[in-house]
Prior knowledge:
This protein is α/β, with parallel strands linked by helices. 26% of the residues lie in helices and 26% in strands.
Amino acid sequence: MADATEIVKKNDFDKFQADRVIKVDEWLNRWENKQTPFHMNEAHKMLKKYVDVMLNGKDHLRILFPLCGKAVDMKWLADLGHKIVGIEVSEKAILEFFTEQSVSYSKEAVSDVPGATLFKSSDGKISIYCCSIYDVSSSFIGKFDGIWDRGSLVAISPCDRQRYSELMLSLMEDDCCYLLEAFDYDPRLHKGPPFFVPFSAIEELYGSTCNIKFLEAADMLTDRQREWGLDYFIQNIYMITLKAT
Length: 245
C-alpha cells in the first residue's frame, strides 16, 4: 500500500508549483541561448484541426497570439486572410520570426507603453508588440475575434494566472473563440514551465463568465518529458467562449 503522504488528489496537484515564479530575464535568456524546445517549425496540428471551430464560419478575423515567440502559426493564419496580433517580450524572437518567415516589416514606438516597440508586416496582416503582456490593454490593441493560447497560460507564473485571465477576458469580443492548450502531468516531478494547468484551474479562472468546452486530449510524452522524470504528459485542448449576457 502506498504511503499516505504519496496519495495526493489530482485536484490538489497545482499547489506543488504555486511558488514557482518566472522572471522576464529567464525568458530572454532562453531566446538568447536558443533554449526554446517549445518552438515548432510547422503550424500546430491542433490549431489546424480546430481552426474551423475557432473561426466559426467567419472570414478576416483579428486573432491574438499571447506570448507568441516566433510561432509559425501566425504566418499560417495570416496567409488564410486573418489579421494577427502577437505579444512577445523577446525582441530576438520577433526578429527571428520576420526573418525566418521572409516577411518584410517596419518598427515603431508604442506611445501607450513607454519602451515598447511595435513590429508590423509590410502588408499589415501581422503586428507584434514587444513588451510585457501585462502592459497591453484593449484601449490601444482593441479586442479580438479569436485567441490562440498555445504555450502562454502554461508558461506564466501560477501566481499571475488571475491577472492573466482577466486580461484575456478584457480582450475578447462578445463572440470571440478562445482556443487554449493546457497540460496534465504530475507537478511533483517537474517544477515547470510548462506548468500543470488542470481543468479545475481553467474553470476557476474562466468558468463564471465563460463556457468551457473540452475538445481533445493527446499523449505528448517524449524523451524530453521523461528526462524530467515524468511517465505521462497529456495535452488538453479547450474552446472558451463568453456566456451570453
